[in-house]
Write a structure and sequence with these properties.
It is built from 32 helices and 4 strands. The protein is mostly helical. The chain has a two-stranded antiparallel sheet. The longest helix is centred in the middle third of the chain and has 42 residues. InterPro entries: TPR-like_helical_dom_sf (IPR011990), TPR_rpt (IPR019734), Ycf3 (IPR050498). One of its GO terms (cellular component) is cell outer membrane.
């Protein structure tokens, strides 16, 4: 095989491999967040394979001395959309997050868009026939592309089906869930399959006998998967796609056979039934409910974000920044990386220019696919028209889904793949289709020593350097995510020192640009300070004091860097406030810094009762009771059943000698939220302080039943048993806590006291004694 032939194969097989791998690809080395495990890895795969294909294709063109370009007018809305999103990224509220995605929404990031646009241009240029001879190989090219796609779809269905029925053959903890699949949330999987089902049906119409039955089998497998998930959005998407098949199929009765119409009609009726029916098939697995913003909430948040300034009106807040917008204008108790609709998100993230360019992109491809069906000028044989119908039906269903659902990387992959096919297999002849003039492939000769050769060489070197730079930066981020994941695991298993090392590595790999790494590093150092303080032996030990001072400085600096890196993320200010609050009594002025940062967080997330409660705690520690009560009451005004705020008010009542009143209030709240683990624990603490030990025991045991590793609940349950004279039961609880917190010196002292027949502690703790392993998050 000569060099040109080898490069040609590399460029094509990189695309085949990407099409096959992307729907099923994930790696287990990331933090256990679905976006990290799936979309983060899919984005990395996309970048690697499109850059390999691009470099191979450019090298092949240089070796041949000519480059062939598809000059379809449809490239214009693609390039316009990329340009608008690039400018929006440059003016984003967090440029780093808008460009890379993670820890924001990876699918909406500029880098993901750039990868898919390169993917689009590679397909339209590599697979578009440039001559009559290449047109004869059109079926071979289609076969390679769709074989890769449908093999991947088949494997996706098999894995999802096994998961749904509890057959967890994957050895990873995150995969031990019936809802896990390689596409995303169950609703995302359902929409992904609903988009492809019309195309699968079309292939069953035009293929030979054996393949016909295989595609029919695949179609009914997809239908069965949709039945299990039973997503209304997916049924509606399928209904749109099948409707396109029927509408255009009926108009070409000489091509579209009656039995095809009957089969399409069957799927349409099936989809129609589940769109208007709430029927649940009892014998099928139950996957639970997904929580996401409503269409109305997404629109309100997008609109409010749009109105912030002239810049946001024009360009929005930047790609992937929906979570920031939701924090400021949504429900403060929840946050989402994405909204309910890709189109509605674009209002806030991309502004007027982003929305208009996105709509132009979507509608251009849909209209073009329809024009090919309506004019009929491109029909060389009936199979080609039917194939065009399959592309049009799935593409229409996909574009419709973007109005009702927020697409992830896998769904966006389908959009760019189907759009590219629509152009690639329609551009071999000069055709007029209304506004869309599909030109022949333009061939540019690269004569050695000519200006075109210099320009081509320059373009190749530039793209090679840019591509390699991007791959290097991406590999650094990937290593950072692996280290971060290892750090979380180390923290959860009690190895605090290893956790600090690993998360510190993640911070270094990202050049202190990723806020979640910095945020969690500051908390890890804070836990290390607590560990050193609990170990004792500080008084008179200058070395120990200096070590604690150094740890304090690093913790504060990491929290400060997080707020400077991503100043629109309220969580960064919340954690910084928490760090300062934890240092009250150790660092002068820590209370004022804590108040300032919590107030900054409230500017970004004004509807979050958690932040108001934390601010109230600072005031309470600073002996400003009235200010504390004001913030606790504000938190309750936002959410009437918010247990932590009620508990803090109860503590104020206890401080004022009104413990009975405090208990009565908490009992009333518990009647509204009987399964609130925090509420049960906090009521138990009140009962403990009021020496109602039987009721305290009942509430602590309830908390443990809801979370077996709830260390604070076990701690107070152990104290309750001790007060009741049940030393062996108390010892059992503290031994279990020690397994979860092996380095806690206080626990060792308590266990020693109990074993010696002494009281566990001299008095009840004023603060929670164990730091629960639930603070670290993305």
């Amino acid at each position: 095989m000569n060099t040109i032939g080898f490069l040609d194969k590399v460029s094509k097989w990189s695309i085949y491999l990407l099409i096959f791998l992307l729907p099923i690809f994930f790696l287990p080395w990331n933090a256990n967040f679905l976006d990290s495990i799936l979309d983060f890895n899919k984005q990395a795969l996309l970048l690697v394979l499109v850059l390999v294909s691009l470099v191979s294709w450019l090298l092949k063109s240089l070796s041949e001395g000519k480059i062939r370009l598809n000059l379809s007018i449809l490239n214009v809305p693609v390039l316009l959309y990329v340009l608008v999103m690039a400018i929006s990224t440059g003016f984003s509220s967090w440029q780093y997050g808008s460009f890379w995605g993670w820890p924001l929404n990876i699918a909406s990031s500029f880098l993901t868009l750039l990868g898919f646009v390169i993917f689009y241009f590679l397909i339209t240029n590599i697979f578009s026939p440039a001559s009559k001879a290449e047109e004869n190989k059109l079926e071979e090219k289609k076969s390679g592309l769709f074989t890769a796609l449908f093999l991947s779809v088949f494997l996706t269905i098999v894995l999802a089906g096994l998961q749904f029925f509890g057959q967890f053959f994957l050895p990873f903890a995150f995969a031990k869930s019936v809802s896990f699949n390689t596409i995303g949330a169950p609703s995302a999987l359902a929409i992904f399959m609903a988009i492809l089902l019309p195309l699968v049906l079309i292939f069953s119409f035009i293929c030979g006998k054996i393949l016909k039955w295989l595609f029919l089998l695949l179609a009914f497998a997809v239908l069965f998967l949709l039945l299990i998930i039973n997503s209304w959005l997916a049924w509606l998407t399928l209904l749109i796609g099948i409707s396109v098949i029927l509408i255009f199929g009926i108009t070409r009765r000489e091509i579209f056979k009656t039995n095809w119409t009957v089969l399409a009609l069957f799927f349409m009726i099936f989809a129609l039934f589940f769109v208007f029916s709430k029927t649940i098939i009892p014998s099928l697995p139950t996957l639970g409910y997904e929580v996401y913003p409503t269409q109305g909430a997404t629109l309100v948040i997008a609109w409010e974000s749009l109105k912030e300034s002239i810049q946001t009106i024009i360009l929005g807040t930047g790609p992937a920044t929906f979570s920031y917008n939701y924090s400021q204008y949504g429900n403060g108790m929840l946050n989402f990386l994405s909204g309910s609709s890709s189109v509605l998100e674009k209002i806030g993230n991309g502004g007027i220019l982003g929305l208009l360019s996105f709509l132009l992109l979507l509608l251009s491809f849909v209209w073009f696919s329809f024009k090919k069906l309506i004019t009929g000028k491109e029909i060389v044989k009936p199979e080609q028209w039917i194939f065009n119908l399959g592309i049009a039906s799935s593409l229409t269903a996909l574009v419709f889904s973007l109005f009702i659902y927020s697409a992830n990387v896998s769904i966006l992959f389908l959009f760019w793949f189907l759009s590219a096919l629509s152009v690639a297999f329609s551009s071999s002849l000069e055709k007029e289709t209304g506004w869309f003039k599909i030109k022949k492939m333009k061939e540019i000769e690269i004569v050695p020593g000519s200006l075109s050769a210099v320009f081509a060489s320059f373009a190749f070197v530039f793209l090679l350097v840019a591509g390699l730079g991007l791959l290097f930066a991406s590999s650094q981020r990937y290593l950072a995510e692996i280290n971060y994941s290892q750090g979380l695991v180390a923290y959860q298993t009690g190895d605090l020192d290893k956790a600090i090392v690993k998360v510190s590595n993640a911070v270094k790999f990202t050049s202190q640009k990723q806020d979640n790494y910095l945020r969690d590093l500051s908390q890890l150092y804070l836990y290390k300070i607590n560990e050193e303080v609990q170990a004792g032996d500080i008084a008179g030990n200058e070395q120990k004091k200096q070590e604690i001072n150094n740890l304090t400085a690093v913790a504060v600096n990491a929290a400060k860097l997080a707020t400077e890196t991503a100043p629109k993320n309220a969580e960064n200010f919340i954690v910084r406030g928490f760090v300062y609050r934890s240092l009250i009594g150790l660092v002068g002025g820590a209370d004022e810094w804590a108040i300032e940062n919590y107030e900054d967080a409230l500017k970004l997330e004004p509807n979050n009762p958690f932040t108001l409660t934390e601010l109230g705690k600072v005031y309470l520690v600073s002996e400003k009771t009235e200010e504390a009560k004001t913030n606790f009451n504000k938190a309750i005004a936002l959410r009437g059943d918010y247990a932590p705020a009620h508990f803090q008010l109860a503590l104020v009542s206890v401080k004022e000698g009104k413990i009975k009143e405090a208990i009565d209030k908490m009992v009333q709240i518990q009647a509204v939220a009987p399964d609130d683990i925090g509420l049960a624990f906090q009521l138990g603490v009140l009962y403990y302080n009021d020496e109602q030990f039987a009721k305290a025991q009942a509430n602590f045991e309830k908390s443990i039943a809801l979370n077996n590793n709830y260390s604070n609940a076990r701690y107070f349950l152990g104290l309750t048993f001790d007060k009741q004279g049940k030393k062996s039961l108390a010892l059992e609880q503290f031994n279990k806590i020690a397994e979860l917190n092996p380095d806690n010196q206080e626990l060792k002292t308590i266990i020693a006291n109990l074993e010696a027949g002494k009281p566990a502690i001299a008095e009840a703790p004023k603060e929670l004694p164990i730091e629960e392993g639930t603070t670290l998050k993305k």
